[in-house]
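Reproducibility note. Readers wishing to regenerate the assembly model reported in the main text can use the exact inputs given here. Chain order matters: entities are listed in the order in which they were concatenated for prediction.
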Amino acid sequence: MMPIWTKSGKKHAVTLLKVQDCHVLKYISKEESGGKTSKLLVGGKNASPFSKSESAMEIFKEAGVPPKQKVTMFNVTDDAIIKPGTPLYAAHFRPGQFVDVTAKTIGKGFQGVMKRWGFKGQPASHGQTKTHRRPGAISTNKAAKVYRGKKMPGKMGNIYRTSMGLKVWRINTKHDIIYVNGSVPGHTNCLVKVKDSKLPTYKDCNKNPPFPTFFADGDEELPEDLYDEEIFQFTDPSVTYT
Amino acid sequence: RVSSDGKPEKFQPPPKPVIIDKQKQREERRFLSPEFIPPRGRTDPLKFYIERKDMIQRRKVFNIPEFYVGHILAVTTADPYANEKANRFVGICIQRGGKGLGATFVLRNVIEDQGVEICYELYNPRIQAIEVLKLEKRLDDNLMYLRDALPEYSTFDVNMKPVSRLDHEEVPVNKLQVRMKPKPWSKRWERPKYNIKGIKFDLPEKKMKEAQKWSQPWLEFDMLREYDTSKIENKIWKEVSEGLKN
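Running the prediction on these inputs yields the following C-alpha cells for the assembly.
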C-alpha cells in the first residue's frame, strides 16, 4: 500500500495489484452453463503442473497455456467473448473506473466471540467468576431453542469477501500494475479477482473502456503510466493555492 | 662527502610527496536517505522499485536536502487558510519515520511557551521548501525526550538565519547533555531499552541501578533480528544517484 496525493493536496491510501500472466482459458456458452449470460474462465499466475489434477490440466492443455494457480469465472455478454488463450493485461482497466476486488481474507483460525463478532464480553473485575470473554445468553426463554446462524465462536477468516466501488487511480502498463483506492481483502501477495463495479452509482462511470479487452499486439500504443485526472504527478511542481 | 666504500655517493631522490586527494575523500562520504531502505518483510521488491522511481521523480523537481535527527529545519507548506497561502515552521527534527513515499519527520519548537510538534511528510506535494538552518547531529537517533526536557532546549528563533557551513565536511556531532524536568516523564528514559546518551541524569545511583533490571543484553546477539543493509544500500545508492543525474 502506498500514499497518493491529489491536485488539491488530499492524501489517499492506495493498494497495488499486479496482473501476473493472466490468460483466458475457456468459453462456456449460455446453454452449457445454464445461467443468464455466457461465461469466460480466466486463470492467473503460473504454477507447476505437478500439483494439478488431470482434469484441471485438460483445460490448460486445450487453451495452450501454462497451468495457473487461480481460475475464476466471469459473466460476459455475447459481444465481449474473447478467444481462449489470449493474454489479459492491466491496461484492460483505465484510471477513473470503479472496481470490485474479491479475495480470501486472512485466516485467523478458531476465534472467540469477541474477536469474531465484536461482542462486548463481561467486566474484568467486580465479582465476575471465570467470565470475561464469553457470549453470555444465547437465546430467550420463550424460544426454547437456539436460532440457526447464532453468532458463536468458530473459524474466522479464510473466506471470500469483496471490497466494492474502489476507484482505479493509476495503471502501469510496463509492469502491469493497477493502483486501487483503499484496502483490499487478503494478505500481501495473495491472489485477487478484479471486476468492474456492479454498484448502481458507478453504472455510467466507464467512459470508453478497451472493449472487449486490451490487446498488446494491437495498434494502440499506451504510455508507460496512465494517471487519473485528479492525481498529482511527481513531474509537476509543488501544489499551491491561489 | 665520502661514503664508506670510497666511491662517490649515489644520488638519492627526495621521498615522494604523499598527496591526500580530498576529492576522493569527499566522494567516499555519501548519504542515502533512510526512507529508501526497504523494511524486512515478504513484500515483492518490485513494489519498492516502483516507489523509488516515484521518489526519485519527486526529488528531481523538488530538492530534499540531506538532514539527520537534531538538525534545525524551516519548512514552508502551502495552506489554503493562511494569509499568504503559505505556512512557515522552524524546528528541530526529533524523529524520522516511515519508509518509501510515506516517510515523515517531526519538527519541534516552543512558541510563546507552548511546545509545538508538527509531523511533515517528505513527499507531500504541498511542501514548497525545506531549508536546513543548522546542521548538527545529536548523540541519539530519536530526540523524543525533549518533551520532558527543560523548554530552553527546544526553543529556536523563528527568524533564525541559516548557519553557513563548509560543504564536504563531516556533519558535526553535538555532545550536548540535556537537563530534564522533574519526574514523572512521558516515558522512562533512564531504561536501557531507549539507549539514550544525550541526557544528564540527575537521578540517584539506586534508581539508575534499578533501571538496569530491564536491560536485555541478549538482544544484540539475537541473529534473527539481524538486518544487514550494506549490500542493499549500495545497490539503492547506485540506482538513486543514476536516477538523479538524468
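We highlight two features of this model. Helices of chain A lie at 30-33, 54-63, 113-117. The first strand of chain A starts at residue 2 and ends at 5.
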